[in-house]
Amino acid sequence: MSVSRRRLLQAGAGLAGGALFAPLLRHIATAQMRAVRRFVFVVEGNCSEPAAFLSPMARAGIDPLLSGPIGTARWWYNRYRDRPATVIDAPDLASAPALAALGGASSIVDKSTVIYGLSSHITGGGHSAFHGALSSTRTVGGRPSGITIDALLAKNAGVRGNTPLEALRLATGPLGQPVNYGLCANGPGQPAPMIVDPRAAFESLFSSVGTPEERVVFARRRRLLDFARADANAAMGLFASSSPERAKVEAYLAAIEDATRRHERFVAMEPALTRVRPAPPASNPLFMGSDPLDAFRAHMQLATAALLGDLSRVVVVGHGPGGQWSFTYPSILPGINRHDTHHGSGANPMYVTAIHRTTGALIEAIATMARTLASTPDPAGGTMLDSTMIVHVGDNGEQHHSTASEFPALVVGGQGLGLAPGGKTIAYAGLGTPRHRQLSNLWNTVGHAAGIELDTFGDERHFRVAPGPLSELRP
C-alpha cells in the first residue's frame, strides 16, 4: 500500500472517529514494521569445542544416539550414527561449561538453542577455515571462493532497509593490523574488511555525535567528499563517453555519492545515535587495557549500540578470525597463549577449562547483547531480540587442528523471524549418512529467516548432502 493511500485511510479514519479504520491501519503499520530483520554472527577463531556447549540433559539425550557414550571426550563427530535429527529439551543449557551466562535472574535459555552435528568439509578446517566458515566454500591462498552469508544478507534491500551501513564488521586481533580480511567476503576474490581497533570502530560509528573534536573530524570527511566529487566531475570531461577510463571515473564517482549519502544519513540520525552512543574510549575501561577479551567486549558493546540505533541490521564480530587467534588471556590463564594452551590441553585439564572459559567469555558478551535487545521493545511488537538472530560458531570446526567435521553452533533469539523457541539441543545424524546436515544448511535457515528463499549456498558440490534450511530450528 502506498504512502498516499495510507494517508487517505488515515483521513477517513479521522472522519469516522477512527473506529472503522484504526484496526486496519494498525495492521498495515505492524506489517511494515515487522519487515525489520537483524542478524549477528559471532565467530570464534580456532574452534569452539562441542564439549563447551554440552549440558547434563543434552548429554543424557545424545549418549544413546552415539556409537559410544561421550564420556570425557571434547568432540565426538565420529560417533554419530544414521538416525533422524533429535531435538532434546535442555532447560539446563546454562549448566554447560561455556553457557553459564545464558542463565541467572534474566535467563535467556528459553531463547537459545545448541546445534550439534553440522559439518563443512569443503572449508578444509585446519587452524582456520578463513572465509569458508561463513561462505561454505574453500579459501585458497587467502583468496575467498564465494560470498559470505553476512554479505549476502547485507546486499538484500529487504534486510538493509534505510540503514547507512550495509554491514558492521568488527574483529579482535593485533592492533598493529588495522583491518582483518580473513573472514568476510563480498564474493570470489573480494574479501571484506573488519575493523580491528575498537577506538577506530567507535569513531566510525559515533564521531557525528561525539566530542567537538570528533565532530570536526566528521565534518572534515564531508568536505573531502565534496572535493573528491568536484575532481571526479571535472575528470569526466577528459574522456570519451564509452572509454574504459571514463567508466572507472564513473565507478569512482558512484562510490563518492554512496559515501555522501551515508554521511548525510548519519547526520539525520543524530537524535537516535545520541541516545544509544556508549561510553567513549576515554572513559570506557573496555578500551583501555590489553586483554583481547576486553577488546571483544568493546566490539560487542559497539555492535549492540549499532543495532539499537539502526546503523546496520547485519553485524559480524570475530574473535581472532582468519588465523589471528593466538591470544594470551591474563584474566583466564596468564603467561601462555591460546596456541600452546591447545597443544598442552591433552595432558592438562586446567588448559581444557581455560579453553572453555574463553568460549564462555564470548558467550557472556553475546548474552549481554541479547538481554539488552530483549529489554528493548520492537516498534512492531515484542522485543528487538525477537527480530534478531544471533549465531555463534567457530571459524574452523570442532578442535584446534580441525577436520571441519563438526561446527557446534549456538543460536539466540529470532522467534519473530520464524525460529522455534529455545531451551533445547539439536543433534544431527553422522557423517556420510543421508540425514546428515551441514553448516550450509544453517546458512540456508538464516536466509529463510531473512525472507530469502535460500535453499542452496556455498560451493560444496559433491560434499552437499541436502539443500534447504534446518527444519528442527523452525516451529
What general outline do the C-alpha atoms trace? globular
For the terminal residues, how far apart are their CA atoms?
A: 30 Å
| H-E order | HHEHEEHHHEEEHHHHHEEEHHEEEH
Question: Could you tell me the radius of gyration in angstroms?
Answer: 24 Å
Seen as an oligomer or otherwise, the chain set is single chain
CATH architecture of the largest domain: 3-Layer(aba) Sandwich
- Overall number of structural domains: 3
Query: Order of strands in the sheet with the most strands?
Result: 2-12-3-11-10-1-7-4
Task: Pick out the low-confidence regions.
Answer: 1-33
CATH topology of the largest domain: Alkaline Phosphatase, subunit A
CATH hierarchy class name of the largest domain: Alpha Beta
Class from helix and strand fractions: alpha/beta
Q: How many beta-strand segments?
A: 12
β-strand amount? 5-15%
Alpha plus pi helix count: 14
Largest sheet: 8 strands, mixed
Q: What is the mean pLDDT?
A: 91
The percent range for helix content is 25-40%
Structure, explained:
The protein is α/β, with parallel strands linked by helices and 475 residues long. The protein folds into 3 domains: 33 residues; 364 residues, Alkaline Phosphatase, subunit A, CATH 3.40.720; 65 residues. Helices cover 36% and strands 14% of the residues. The protein has 14 helices and 12 strands. The strands form 3 sheets. It has an 8-stranded mixed β-sheet with strand order 2-12-3-11-10-1-7-4. A two-stranded antiparallel sheet has the order 5-6. A hairpin with a 2-residue loop joins strand 5 and strand 6. Helix 7 runs parallel beside helix 11, helix 8 packs antiparallel against helix 9 and helix 11 runs parallel beside helix 13. The protein is globular and about 75 Å long. The N terminus is likely disordered.
